[in-house]
Design goal:
Shape: globular
Helix content: 25-40%
Structural class: alpha/beta
Order of helices and strands: EHEHEEHHHHHEHEHEHE
Distance between the termini: 23 Å
Bound molecules: adenosine monophosphate, zinc ion, fe (iii) ion
CATH topology of the largest domain: TIM Barrel
CATH superfamily of the largest domain: Metal-dependent hydrolases
Number of helices: 10
Oligomer: single chain
Length: 284
Amino acid sequence: MIDLHTHSNFSDGTDSPAELINKAHAAGLTTLALTDHDTVAGWDEATERLRPGLSLVLGSEISCQTEDGISVHMLGLLFDRENEALATMMSATRDNRIGRMHKIIARLTAAGYEISMEDVEAELSDGATLGRPHLADALISKGYMKSREEVFAEVLHNDSPFYVAHYSPTPEVAIAQIKEAGGVAVIAHAMSSLRGRVVSPQSFESYVAAGLDGIEIFHRDHTLPNRELLLTIAAEFDLVKTGSSDYHGNGKLNQLAEFQTAPEEFEKLESRADQRRVIRATAR
Ligand code: AMP
Ligand code: ZN
Ligand code: FE
Ligand code: FE
């Protein structure tokens, strides 16, 4: 069982990397990717706590924005963390997320919500990438709402008046940077209309030209017609087809390995990285 998209508390998941490893091992996964938003901060703990029988794919889910303002998430897997341009790109996005959070808080405050940056920071683990889910958790702690789902539905969704985007690279720039760092690029939940506007099928041509390796097709936010369309695009450009959970611990309903990647697709993907970077636990 291969799951190529999960989050820990180094972004907006609720399990530590060690807990995530243990749960993946217990669930019988053979390969797990750790893909926290715009960071590699959880990589060391995941590596140290890896369990025999489980292979680890280190990665990050890179926030992107198209020229016309559509939010895109790009999974970068198996890249070299020492690549400076990629590290700088991620750290610029993390910085931008802070200013953006202040703006969202100001809008909520103007609308009468009593919420501060300190309240949000209290929900964030040390060194984690800040995101709307932490603000959701703060609103829940303050008793305004009961679940992240409810907060997103009511105030934090992408079409809400409280929504503020954060600067991030275009998908093409992110793909090129991931490739430059030796990794592989897989576009995440590309047709998830729950997240607001989505990219057009035509835009894949430009992503492929930039080096796109794969498409996350099997994901709970994709309808059957979405999957059919993405399968057609993957066939047209000979892209790797992945499936994954986008697990966030108890921050989302998504269960580990609820969607999976076929072993032959994963092999194709791994062979597109510049080195063998999958980590296997040594017996100890
Ligand atoms: P941000 O990265 O700050 O723009 O926040 C987006 C993140 O919020 C996504 O990556 C999801 O992890 C999370 N998210 C989006 N919609 C929901 C939802 N309905 N319930 C829980 N988490 C959500
Ligand atoms: Zn997330
Ligand atoms: Fe995402
Ligand atoms: Fe994700």
